[in-house]
Amino acid sequence: MIRTIIIEDEKPAVRRLEKLLGLFSDLQVVASLNSVEEAVDWFQNNEHPQLIFSDIVLGDGLSFDIFDKVSTKAFIIYTTAFDQYTLKAFKLNSIDYLLKPIEEEDLAKAIEKFKSFLPEQGAVNSQEIRQIVKKEQATLSRILVKIGYNLKVVSINEVSCFYSENKIVYLQTKERNFPTDFTLDELENVLEPSKFFRVNRQFIISSDYIKNIHTSPNYKVDLEFQPEEEITVSRERVKDFKDWLAG
Question: Where would I find the Response regulatory domain in this sequence (predicted)?
């Protein structure tokens, strides 16, 4: 039997996942934990499982905080309503990332992927797994941003650009700009490359919102919605920029 635990703070989500996992006769759920604090305590006092299903946003923090405090060799399948944490998830022992509501077919594929990594003999080559999984990273479709004490989900289709200012990366929409938890380097890895392009060290722009392109004396882009600062294409990126525009 494959020893499995669930880390999830929403009871309906726990019940649904337990029901779905019950369809797999070789999986045994040995614990359901609902907070960072409870999970840390459990890992410190129990035999670790082989597989973890974990939500990311918990009531007392992010589940990443658990694995900052305890080390585990278990594989993790993250389950969450928000996909902005994809990059960080894949830096850990994650082998898949399921967006809620979880579908039975997607769950089955994730479990099969986990089983494919189980060694017939000897140890798992974790570096090889990371390379395989890295190639399968999903592109970002939604971003969770904070507005005071509230949270807002912004569709990536609403974003005209991302830009860096005073060491903070903002996204720009028709409505306003919002601070994010990303760096521009991280965003380059999770944005759809056919739609977003990094024109310089400060800006990543969306092709959907390009209003005008000036070519003299330098390449300059006007977006439908953008901060006050001009957006210029760095000289070394002009050729790639033109190729990107051509599709």
Answer: 3-115
